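Supplementary Methods S3. Complex input for the iron/sulfur cluster-bound model.
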Amino acid sequence: KTPLLEVRNLETSFSINGKWHNAVDNVSFKINRKKIVGIVGESGCGKSVLSLSVIGLLPKLNSRISNGEIVFEGKNLAELSDNEMNKVRGKDVSMIFQEPMTSLNPVLTIGYQLSEVLHNHRNISKAEAREESIALLKSVGISRPEKIVDEYPHQLSGGMRQRVMIAIAIACQPKLLIADEPTTALDVTVQAQILDLLKEIQEINDMSIIMITHDLGVVAEMCDEVIVMYAGRVVEHTDVDTLFYDPKHPYTKALLDSIPKLDEEAVELNTIKGIVPSLVNMPAVGCRFVDRCAHAMKECREITPQLASESEGHDVACLLYKSSFPREGVKTS
Ligand code: SF4
Ligand code: MG
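Predicted complex, serialized as structure tokens:
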């Protein structure tokens, strides 16, 4: 069976002082139908750039897809025109962001913004769009949708706004939803409700979700598979149980070690010693984790580890594993 989405050798680069640097570097993965796949890593690891590449929302002035393919249901999204991509976005692939206030228009009613998506992708009357908007609001757990439909974003709580964003994102029943830190800005109880809602919608609508998060608790709760990114590259990709019980990559292990214990205050993931190298200081060859890795060897600065299958369904890019050494006929970056 063909995957819903297949990203092949993707490179997304940013122009900094006249030079192009890869924020996403030779990334490949598949997303199967009806799966929730987490993408984890510290900030600056390329998670958001990767998702903006998939949905065609990269800032045009200073970024571009410089190599690779993004194949969604047989169509390479990376080569679509803006016009063609506008037809895909919102209909086949949707995205929700961390702060719904920035993606909702403050001067338009909730109903107007929902109807707009419906009108963009379907031939539907004003009255029908209003009816459907109310039904959609109801389906994302908003009580009194007949009232909310005429309200403005600022009249709603953060959790309600995120529900509205989800309603807009699923209005045309996309097969893929990208959720970029969808609960980070919300308080803990609301977070749990939004995650439950996403899971419920995923099952009802038979969609796949790419869940971008720095929170391994969210991964454990929600995901079937996990992709771990470091400095623009995928370093590990496996199912969620294997990730927690048999992690291979030293970066993944460090992330797991940084999960706060139950009796500690919640902390961000960047408790691993050192920082992600900045785009302009990325080493041309070798492993990008080398300066922070407890297992670093001499060859880690000379050979770029390749993401390869270490065992069935478990891909790793680390020179501690033979499979990660470059092989002939395989594209290296
Ligand atoms: Fe550490 Fe080397 Fe593996 Fe990179 S390739 S994670 S430096 S052991
Ligand atoms: Mg981000």
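The first strand starts at residue 5 and ends at 16. The two ends are 29 Å apart (CA to CA).
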